[in-house]
């Protein structure tokens, strides 16, 4: 039994190291530098070992990073009182400080569904944070307002993480977004 536990621990450690290495390479050199061959070389083992750990190869590893990214993003957006300004600042700071991960979250195709019965928990939790922060008269209004806030933050996040917005206006931009969503209509 102890040997089996050690094997599980070793496998988890290797998986963690692969995911961390993928993140480092992507953030330092961009996604084009992330290949199975490069990861295997960096880790010091063969490509078949990497495929044994991640049968879906690079796409599966990136999918893991995307889910971790959503969990990290949710943690940054969350506050005890569902403060909208905290959520906005946390979201945009995440996008600015993790440009490669944010790019993957925002643009890469993944195997998991959004707004479906099998949506991963980190995505469900993140959207719930958005819904609580924007409020609304009913579930439909909360959902639509959350989708619109997410869309706006997504656009600002991408533009900001690519250096296309004036950093000096970050506070004003965040305050304006908060003002747009502060009070539900009607």
TrEMBL record:
An example molecular function term from Gene Ontology annotations: DNA-binding transcription factor activity
Keyword annotations of the record: DNA-binding, Transcription, Transcription regulation
Residues of the HTH tetR-type domain: 18-61
Annotated ranges, domain HTH-type transcriptional regulator MT1864/Rv1816-like C-terminal: 84-174
Pfam families: TetR_C_33, TetR_N
Keyword hit for Transcription regulation: yes
Bilayer-spanning residue ranges: none
Top-level division of the source organism's lineage: Bacteria
UniProt-recorded name of the protein: TetR family transcriptional regulator
Organism: Agromyces agglutinans
């Amino acid at each position: 039994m102890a040997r089996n536990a050690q094997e599980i621990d070793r496998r988890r450690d290797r998986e963690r190291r692969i995911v961390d290495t993928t993140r480092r390479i992507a953030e330092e050199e961009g996604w084009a530098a992330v290949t199975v061959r490069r990861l295997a070389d960096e880790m010091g083992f063969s490509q078949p070992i990497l495929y044994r750990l991640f049968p879906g190869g690079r796409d599966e590893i990136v999918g893991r990073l995307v889910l971790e990214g959503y969990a990290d993003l949710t943690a940054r957006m969350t506050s005890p009182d569902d403060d909208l300004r905290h959520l906005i600042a946390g979201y945009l700071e995440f996008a600015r400080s993790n440009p490669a991960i944010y790019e993957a979250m925002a643009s890469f195709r993944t195997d998991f569904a959004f707004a479906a019965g099998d949506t991963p928990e980190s995505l469900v939790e993140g959207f719930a944070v958005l819904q609580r922060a924007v409020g609304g008269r009913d579930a439909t209004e909360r959902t639509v307002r959350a989708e619109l806030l997410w869309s706006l933050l997504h656009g600002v996040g991408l533009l900001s993480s690519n250096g296309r917005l004036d950093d000096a206006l970050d506070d004003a931009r965040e305050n304006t977004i908060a003002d747009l969503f502060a009070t539900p209509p009607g």
